């Protein structure tokens, strides 16, 4: 009786929405699409911006910690290893657990771990406390990414590519803001000024708590909804496993090449063209802006034309530019970096949604697997390319990495999920 009464009240509120609810639904329809909850996606994208801004502070502070605590490069590497271990290895585990036992407020808890890590980092008086702080910051990231990706999937309606792209663009912007804020605020004012950034974490907790309430209210409906792939028939386990393997190889090629630009592009410009540190940083921000712009394009295009083709183009399409880049002048290098950033960035949201469609009902696991793998590959690539640059020179690094996008050829072997659904149907 009570359950039927609650159902009737909900139906009544839907048929006679408040002015605020009507406006929100109108905005969702105008900018999102059928069933797309744009206000939740914007909240997730903003939270992703805050999260990745705070996460990217840590590597930007390595020079400060190295001088203050007289650290060796090996100890700096241990900080990276500690952060990457908790930020990448735990993501698939957390995603798998929350697939079975969703935790609507784990997003706010994850941001709370980041807040605690920043507070500890601002007061760390030894190398070991820096490691503990790094582990907490990485733990916050490992909780945030798979669950936030799941909520974006829930709020996407029929536009999963658009939703993941909008979510991802916030993270890309945040990654570019972190080093800039560190240079403007922390470097001039010292380690204790890290504490000021806990205000951003508090803001993130407030936003994510509101997202958590929406998540909890809509969870029962999502549980009852059968996955779209399941309704249309599923690929064999062998084909799914092969496709996941191909996607991981593509993520490897994308992030290995991306790290060569995000971590070593400034050194390349300084070495080859004699740019100042300031001008090389400006060129890096141009590249990072192109990455952010490209992120938002890939998702909607994948929704319309098929994710397989976006994945193929976004990685293989970079090859002509990446192969030419080490051999042209300064102006052409900057222009080519814009094309590279915009095209390459469109891949990840398409790859992630494609993987989630391959394995229906495992949204968190797939998000954790691919975010975690991307984080881990970035850490390995940074160390490997740094060692290669020490031995052969920075120009050789860019010449070798220019061939990595050619790995995008293997995207041709990915199954066409849309065609398979139509055949199964």
At a glance:
By secondary structure, this protein is an all-alpha fold. 82% of the residues lie in helices and 0% in strands.
Features:
single chain, 425 residues, mainly alpha, Growth Hormone, Chain: A, globular
Layout: helices, strands, pairs:
Blueprint: H1 2-15, H2 19-31, H3 38-55, H4 57-60, H5 62-69, H6 73-100, H7 106-123, H8 127-155, H9 160-189, H10 198-224, H11 228-231, H12 237-273, H13 277-305, H14 307-316, H15 319-324, H16 330-345, H17 347-358, H18 363-392, H19 394-401, H20 417-424
Helix pairs in contact: 3-8, 3-9, 3-10, 6-8, 6-18, 7-8, 7-10, 8-9, 8-18, 9-13, 9-17, 12-13, 12-17, 12-18, 12-19, 13-14, 13-16, 13-17, 14-17, 18-19
Mean pLDDT: 80
Unreliable segments of 5+ consecutive residues: 1-15, 17-33, 226-233
Work out the strand percent.
Answer: under 5%
Output the helix-strand order: HHHHHHHHHHHHHHHHHHHH
What fraction, in percent, of the residue positions are helical?
over 70%
What is the CATH level 1 assignment of the largest domain?
Answer: Mainly Alpha
Largest beta-sheet details:
none
Structural class: mainly alpha
Number of H- or I-type helical stretches: 20
Count of structural domains = 2
CATH topology of the largest domain: Growth Hormone, Chain: A
Distance between termini?
Answer: 39 Å
Shape: globular
Q: What is the CATH homologous superfamily assignment of the largest domain?
A: MFS general substrate transporter like domains
How much is the radius of gyration in Å? 22 Å
In the CATH hierarchy, the architecture of the largest domain is Up-down Bundle
Strand element count = 0
